[in-house]
Description:
By secondary structure, the chain is α/β, with parallel strands linked by helices.
Amino acid sequence: xxxxxxxxxxCTGVLCVSEVLLEVRNLCTxxxxxxxIVRAVDxxxxxxxxxxxxGLAGESGCGKSTTAYSIIRxxxxxxxxxxxxxxxxxxxxxxxSSEEFRTKIRWKKISMIFQGAMNALNPVYKIGDQxxxxxxxxxxxxxxxxxxxxxxxxxxxxxxxxxxNSYPHELSGGMKxxxxxxxxxxxxxxxxxxxxxxxxxxxxxxxxxxxxxxxxQREHGTSIILITHDLSLxxxxxxxxxxxxxxxxxxxxxxxxxxxxxxxxxxxxxLASIPRIRGxxxxxxxxxxxxxxxxxxxxxxxxxxxxKYRFDLCSREEPPMVExxxxxxxxxxxxxxK
Length: 338
Ligand SMILES: Nc1ncnc2c1ncn2[C@@H]1O[C@H](COP(=O)(O)OP(=O)(O)OP(=O)(O)O)[C@@H](O)[C@H]1O
Ligand SMILES: [Mg+2]
């Protein structure tokens, strides 16, 4: 695929190559700690078209947030992107100067709702000031215009605009999370990364926030990367799903493919652990064992120590990603040829 394929032709509806918005290629992000190198993201590749919602799922510590931080170039020390390319609208954003990335891409083009975001609001400023600040800094709006826009944004996320003069401590957890979402939407970016946007919220607020994200995608054509360990949340909203295990994507495909026809034993295990209300009542299963220490991951397939289908090759060589059906990829020796 050549770089010219990425030109924005403005086409909508049917999928075409030119709609590719984000392409992550062979991304490696490691943390250089005193106790060793944590290979948090190790050779991760995926792409996202304009308007698509990608769900990124996997157990705690598998590298979901680190993938997100890499895309928005905010990997905290001692972490570092050591390899790979991230093309956004056809340009490798890892090769941009930090100044160019900060002024042209972060928040304007790619924004992020951080994990535990509701605690990130500054307690001494009114929420209106915090939203308006983003607009004054990036859009050169006057304070008055920024306040006007901040009111609109609060309305969009379902908060009464009269709350603009509230301090964070005067809001509920769900409201604070929605303020953070308002800030992420302030500049109407084509890509929003939502890292566990509903964790620690009750199910009603969780549903409201999921509906908000759905509306955003429908009305603005925003692409979303939704990160969560909860596969049932992803099922509600995502067209595509990537399953991560120990720093690697092990399965990637359209939601129907992943939910109705999973290939990887890890994906099958994750799906078997979701309670179902409808359909046959089946016993909930869980995958025995724990994810590996990423300072010293197992050789070959990283999942092999927990896999009931493992055979010799699995502990010796890393399985390649193979396409098992159209745009459905799996990294498992059960499906790859040596
Ligand atoms: N600042 C850091 N220093 C050292 N290691 C880190 C740091 N941040 C993350 N890691 C390690 O990188 C790996 C991936 O962490 P990450 O936060 O990306 O996982 P995650 O999939 O988002 O997990 P969770 O579902 O719990 O949020 C983990 O092994 C973690 O211990
Ligand atoms: Mg995380």
